[in-house]
Design brief:
Layout: E1 9-13, H1 21-44, H2 49-71, E2 75-80, E3 85-90, E4 96-101, E5 107-110, E6 119-123, E7 126-130, H3 136-154
Antiparallel strand pairs: 1-2, 2-3, 3-4, 5-6, 6-7
Helix pairs in contact: 1-2
């Protein structure tokens, strides 16, 4: 069987969510308990409509986290193999787009603006933004890794090897 050659570079980029499922349920439970207690206190004081708003607050927080977790399904794949640099983007809704670039012409650009560090791959006048959901430090690290991989890809075979002279 033919084995596919190892790619020069391969990365899966995905949004980071620091709060796991268990932590989410603990947080929502605590917020609901506190809001329910406050709502009951207001109800007993005669301000019964506040109880509804306390419940609405918990619902809105739950919806916000649900939206955040749905956005975490987005993925980007960057693969540099012997023939091309492939960028495959999967949106949070599951829609896929794919671009194949000729690695010889790809230029990696990472802005040095404070709090930005936008990572863009340029080829034939078109720009492809990568890792918009990554932190600035992660984008800089990815840019350096991509530049290194493209440099290695552009080297002729055996360029890094020293020849031994036998007498």
């Amino acid at each position: 069987m033919d084995q596919a050659p190892q790619p020069f570079f391969q990365a899966e980029l995905r949004p980071h969510r620091s709060l796991g499922r268990r932590g989410f349920f603990i947080l929502i439970g605590c917020v609901a308990l506190i809001n329910f207690g406050a709502g009951i206190a207001f109800w007993l004081a005669g301000a019964w409509p506040v109880l509804g708003f306390c419940g609405l607050e918990v619902l809105l927080l739950w919806l916000a986290f649900r939206y955040s977790y749905a956005q975490a399904r987005a993925r980007e794949f960057v693969i540099l193999d012997g023939a091309s640099l492939t960028i495959r983007r999967i949106s949070a809704r599951g829609l896929q787009k794919q671009w194949q670039l000729q690695p010889y012409w790809v230029r990696v650009e990472c802005d040095d603006e404070p709090d930005s560090h936008r990572l863009t791959l340029w080829s034939h006048g078109r720009g492809f933004n990568l890792g918009q959901f990554l932190s600035p430090a992660e984008r800089l690290e990815l840019a350096e890794a991509l530049r290194d991989a493209l440099w290695r890809w552009r080297q002729p075979p055996g360029a890094g090897l020293r020849s031994l002279e036998v007498i």
